[in-house]
Every structure is written in structure tokens, then in C-alpha cells.
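lol so apparently i was supposed to do this last week
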Amino acid sequence: MSEGTSTPTTTATTEDDTLRLAVTGATGRMGRAVLDAASDRADFSVVLAVARDPATETSADFPERIEPAADLESLLDEYSPDVLVDFTGPNSAIEYAERCADSGVAFVSGTTGFDDAQLERLCEASEGAPVLHASNFSRGVEALSGVLADVLEALPGYDVELTETHHNRKRDAPSGTANTLLDRIEATRESQGDAESKGGMTERTYGREGIQPRAEGEIGVHVRRAGDVRGEHEVLLAGNDEVLSLTHRAESRAVFAAGALDAARWLAGREPGSYDFREVLA
Ligand code: NAD
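anyway here it is w/ nicotinamide-adenine-dinucleotide bound
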């Protein structure tokens, strides 16, 4: 256990309607936001906060006691959380999902950048515990994603370009949210299959340089990394002498933390399986 922290995480028995929460990546930007959001909510009690290397990632005045991730298996046994919320990296998220599956702890992850093999392992972990992964925990992005199919169907043949902007420390590109929106755009366009959208075939084009006229069916994807932008996504549709722009901008990480906690409350106590953020908001 790590030393030198001022306020230990509570191990007290919680009231019936209070969820015992574990947080991984507790020293990260999103981990911090989740801990702050949970401390403002009466329906959560943080029983466990975990980081890869608490000795180097925390200081003496760090507000919570942070435990080392290497001990996660025994920590889950010791603190018996109802649910674990994870915002880390793809490798660690999969490991934590598997530890949660072994211990029957509900697992909520907002980590992005998984490859196909990792997504497969996440799916396998859901055989042992309820698992909910979302590339974006904001209600606004979920709403944007929900209306996208109708908008695309109303505007067949219109050119589509997606632009996303994030802070300059973000590792994966395009963002998980951009990929989720792109999957939806492609699925809708390909199901339309009309002559105006090249028989429905689409192709993602990542940025442009030199002589590169726009091809039919192309979906332009543009990634910007700057400053401390929390996350901005714009889907632009243009054609027929008009432009429609659908933009979502997260103004604080608190919006993602709130969504992840709503998902955690919804997920805890459910049967093992893979669940969707859309189900939480239904
Ligand atoms: P961050 O770099 O500030 O924090 C990441 C944390 O994870 C740190 O504590 C780091 O030590 C830990 N970590 C990273 N790799 C690890 C590993 N291999 N083993 C153990 N611990 C590891 O990043 P952040 O801004 O908090 O974002 C974290 C993740 O959440 C990213 O994948 C990001 O894209 C994603 N994210 C998702 C949403 C959403 O709504 N789903 C919102 C914001 C960020």
C-alpha cells in the first residue's frame, strides 16, 4: 500500500443505495475528474483509487490514498467495490477488465484506442462481469450520434467531412468518438446505396495535401491537437448550395465523468454481458 497521503480512501460499509466505487488511472486527468465527481455525489463512496505507479505519480499532498495497479486482483478482494471506472490506456484497460471479470466487479471504461484483438478481449471479459465501454460519455455526443442517421438520410449525396480537436497530450488519433461517428456515417451511407452517393460506397480520407480533388463517396477526416481542448467534433454536410454543420464541444471533463458515473450506477448489479451507453440514457 502506498504511504504519504493525507486522506485514506474509505473502507467503511456503505449504505444500501451507495455504490462502492473503484477508479483506475486515478492520477490521470479523467481519473481526477471521476474522483471529484464521485465526491460530490451521495450515491457513490470511493473505496479504491488505483494508479500504475503511485510512488512517482502522486505527491505527499495528494488528496486520496492511491494503490498500485499491480495489486489490483487482491485490492478488488480486499475492498469489494461494486463497480470500477477506468480511464487509462488500452493495454491496462483490458487487464483491469479481466481482473474485474475474475472478481465479478462491474467494469465501466471510457478508455479509447483499442485494437480489434483488445476489443475481442473486452468482449470475453463481459462473460464474467457486466462491462460497459463508451468512447464518449457525454449526453450531447450520444444525441449527435442518434440524429446522424436521420440527417444523412435526409441529405443523400451531400459531402461529409468530420473534424475533431483535442488537447495536445492526446495519444490516439482520430479520437474514439470520431471513429464511432465515422462508423455510423459509413453504415448509413452504405445502407442508402443511392446513385448520388456512389452506390453507397464510402472511403475515409485522412487530411489532404497537394493535388487531391475530393472523390465521390469520400469522408474527409481531420484531426487537430492543440492546447487543452477537452474535445470538439464537427460533422459537416455540404451540397445543393447549402452547408449543415453539427458540432459538439465538451467544455469540461466533468461532463464525461458524470456520464461515466451514471453508467456505473446503471451497470452495477447487472448480469455479465456487454452494455452500451445508449441503454443507460434510454
Ligand atoms: P491521462 O494521460 O491524463 O491519464 C491516463 C491515466 O492512465 C494515468 O493515470 C496513467 O498513469 C494511466 N495509464 C496509462 N497507461 C497505463 C498503463 N499501461 N498501465 C497503467 N496505467 C496507465 O489521460 P486522460 O485524459 O485521463 O484520458 C485517459 C483515457 O480516457 C484516454 O484513452 C482518453 O482518450 C479517454 N477519454 C475518454 C473519454 C470518454 O468520454 N469516453 C473522455 C476523455 C478521455
